[in-house]
C-alpha cells in the first residue's frame, strides 16, 4: 500500500516558520522569499485540511494542530538530517566533533583535554569554538557544551557544572597604596567588565552592601578570557567565573578577593541529539566530561 505523504517540499518551510514564528525569519534561514514560505505552508494546510498557524496582526501563532504537527515534523527532519550527516561525514576512525563556547574552550576544556587523550588515545577530538546556536546536522557536530538553563528542545541535555562569580585580581593589587582588603577598597581600583555574563559589578556591589563605587566604570570585554587576561596583567579587578579560572587561581596568577560569591542561575550543559550516544566515541567523551566535573564539585 503506497504511503500517504504530505507535500515534502513544504515541510522544511513549515518547520522553520514554526520554530521562528515568522515567515520572514524562515525565509532568511532557507534563503528564499517570504512569499515562497507562505505558499509552501498554504499548500501543506490545503493538503492537511486544517490551519497550522493563526495569522494575527503583526504576529504568527501555531494552532493546537500546528504545535503537534511541528513537533513531529521537527523530529523527522532532525532524524533525516542526522542520518544524512552520518553517511556523508568522511570516515575518520574514532573521531568526534565537539562545539563549545570560546570561554569554556580556553578556560576549562583545553587544560584538561590531555587527560582524555591519555585515556582514549585512539579518539580524535575536533573542537569548534563559537557562541552561536548549534545546528548539529549542518555543522556536523556530535556533541556541544553550552551555558544556559538546560532547555534545548528536541535535544538531550545533561548538566555538567555550575558557576559562581567571585572578584579576582593579580596578587600585585594586594599591595601598594590602596591594597584590596575589603570590598569598599574597590573604589580605588579599575573594574573590568564582561559584557556577556548574567552577573555584573552592580549586582555584586549591591549584594556586598558597598556604596560609593561606580559600578559602570572601567573597560568592557566581549569574552571572559579577555577579562581574565586583563586581570592577570594587573589592569583591574574582574568578576571571575569559578568554572573558568581554576588554573589561574591554582598557579597564583590570580587571587580571589573577599568571601562573597554570587551563584549563577545558569550552568554548563552537555547537549546532543539522542542518537549521538549510539556512537561509543560520543559516550566516552560525555562520560569523561562528567567525571572531570565531578572532581571539582
Concise overview:
Helix content is 38%, strand content 20%. By secondary structure, it is α/β, with parallel strands linked by helices. The mean pLDDT is 86.
Question: Main traits of this protein?
Answer:
single chain, 6-stranded mixed β-sheet, alpha/beta, 3 domains, Arc Repressor Mutant, subunit A, 5-stranded mixed β-sheet, 297 residues, D-Maltodextrin-Binding Protein, domain 2, 38% helix
Radius of gyration: 24 Å
Q: Strand portion, in percent?
A: 15-25%
Helical coverage, percent range:
25-40%
Structural class: alpha/beta
Please trace the helix and strand order, writing H or E for each element.
HHHEEHEHEEEEEHEHEHEEEH
Shape: globular
Describe what you observe in this structure.
The protein is built from 9 helices and 13 strands. With 297 residues, it is α/β, with parallel strands linked by helices. The chain has 3 domains: 68 residues, Winged helix-like DNA-binding domain superfamily/Winged helix DNA-binding domain (Arc Repressor Mutant, subunit A), CATH 1.10.10; 97 residues, Periplasmic binding protein-like II (D-Maltodextrin-Binding Protein, domain 2, 3-Layer(aba) Sandwich); 100 residues, 3-Layer(aba) Sandwich (D-Maltodextrin-Binding Protein, domain 2), CATH 3.40.190.10. Helix 1 crosses helix 4. The longest helix is centred in the N-terminal third of the chain and has 25 residues. The model has no long low-confidence stretch (mean pLDDT 86).
